[in-house]
Amino acid sequence: MRYVSTRGQSPAIGFEDVLLSGPAPDGGLYVPETWPLFDATAVKPAASYAELTASIVAAFAEAPAWRGAIERHAHAAYARFDDPRVAPLRELGPRRWLLELFHGPTLAFKDFALQLLAPLMSEALERRRSRATVVAATSGDTGAAAVAALANQPNIDLVVLHPKGRISDVQRRQMTTTTARNLRNVAIEGTFDDAQALVKQLFADQAFARAHRLAAINSINWVRIAAQAAYYIAACRTLDRPRLTFSVPTGNFGDVFAGYVAKQLGAPIERLIVATNVNDILARAIATGVYARGQVHATMSPAMDIQVASNFERMLFESHGRDPAAVRALMAAFAARGTLTIAPDALTSLRRTFVSDRVDEQETAATIRRVHEELKLLIDPHTAVAMAAAGRVAPDGDVVVLATAHPAKFPEAVEAATGAKPVLPERLRAIVTAPERFDTLPN
Q: Is 229:222 a contact under the CB 8 Å cutoff?
């Protein structure tokens, strides 16, 4: 399996290189040169979640060189989840399910990829007798999951940038209370987009990136996307429906793009709902064909407070017939003017799978409250956005809503909406009083 840049001006690389890389040297993102053949029926019905994930990720690797390591680390990763089903489905009502993705170490969907990616990166570095500095920007959950996964990993140093004052206290403390010596947290006086731009600039300085052996664990890392495709396929196998729609709380487009990858691998996914909060660049792009940067607004669903969705470039590549010249022109226009226009045929292609909806703060709170009153269930604000969008966009049909974070990660918003404060699981309660360690820097 070889990987090419969406912008077409960097050499193709192999799995081990893509595992340790950030953006391609030409500024694009790596994607598989061709989609692998994946036969889901070859994975036995009784296979564990770890076995299914290992089969999917191995399809994107050079077999058999990495298959054993992928299987070993997948079993270790998902053994750390609180629920033995790893990604359990909760029935909400007729033809409606909640896919709970918050049973990992940091109570968010990012654990699915990072608990596997971290040891794979460490093993790759060990094979090369090398060391890497991982630099990540986070809107909250990626940083916490990265800290949990990379703490005390040999061969890796981690620097996490988060937007100061724009994530929840629980999200921040999950990062800043670590005592691991290989981790450093930086609060950027700006937005997530500012932090993400700084990371991209570091990788764009190729001499600097080489000198410090920079690596990435944001969803620009392809292996993260591949690992996340597994829970879509697992849900499809469990429900065994001819067609399913998934509603996905969307910020950086990585999670919903993983659904597209699952569809490319044969999962019976009819539609993917791109559910955004008021930071609606993606909803506007899918509705109008114009992808235009706007002002970032702080909301109760901070992981979605994004106006530059990095992974959307991968979807532009796919929808424009995998034409790197078209992607180069689009991204140059966006860099120069903060806007780009999707070609009509590409927009039609995009809309065959993706549909979008925007959910404001009032509706988010109302959805949290309604779910609590009707189902006696607490959900976090991101999940509420996806649930509200599903109700409007797909009132009929079989729909799975992704619950991407535990409600206890956003206790103030949930309590304000319901009057009930979600309880932080026992294993995380120490972070409430533990001393914090982080630096503050201007943008």
A: no
Query: For 184-236, what is each residue's pLDDT tens digit?
Result: 999 999 999 999 999 989 999 989 999 999 998 888 899 999 999 999 999 99
Q: What is the pLDDT of residues 283-300, one digit of tens each?
A: 999 999 999 999 999 999
Among the listed residues 44, 110, 164, 263, the single catalytic one is 110
CB-CB contact of 97 with 400 (8 Å): yes
Amino acid type, 64: P
Look up residue 81 and give its two tokens: 């989840």
Cβ atoms of 54 and 70 closer than 8 Å: yes
Report the mean per-residue pLDDT for the chain. 95
Model pTM score = 0.94
Instruction: Give yes or no for a contact between 438 and 176, defined as CB atoms under 8 angstroms apart.
Output: yes
Q: Tell me how far apart the alpha carbons of residues 78 and 353 are, in angstroms, rounded to a whole number.
A: 30
CA–CA separation, 194 vs 307, rounded Å? 10
Q: Which residues of 368-407 are buried (b: 16+ CB within 10 A; e: fewer)?
A: bbbbbeeeeebbbbbbbbbbbbbbebbeeebbbbbbbbbb
Work out the burial of residue 419: count CB atoms within 10 Å of its CB; fewer than 13 is exposed, 13-18 middle, 19 or more buried.
Answer: exposed
Q: What angle do CA 87, 91, 94 make, to 5 degrees?
A: 145
In this structure, are strands 354-358 and 339-341 parallel, antiparallel, or unpaired?
Answer: unpaired
Rg (CA), the chain: 20
Which tokens belong to 109? Answer: 């969907």
The CA distance from 132 to 216, in Å, is 10
pLDDT per residue as tens digits for the range 39-63: 877 788 889 999 999 999 999 997 6
DSSP 156: E
Contact 351, 344 (CB under 8 A): no
110 included as an active-site residue: yes
Strands (E), 293-353: 339-341
Residue 329 Cα to chain centre, angstroms = 26
State the DSSP code for 14.
Answer: -
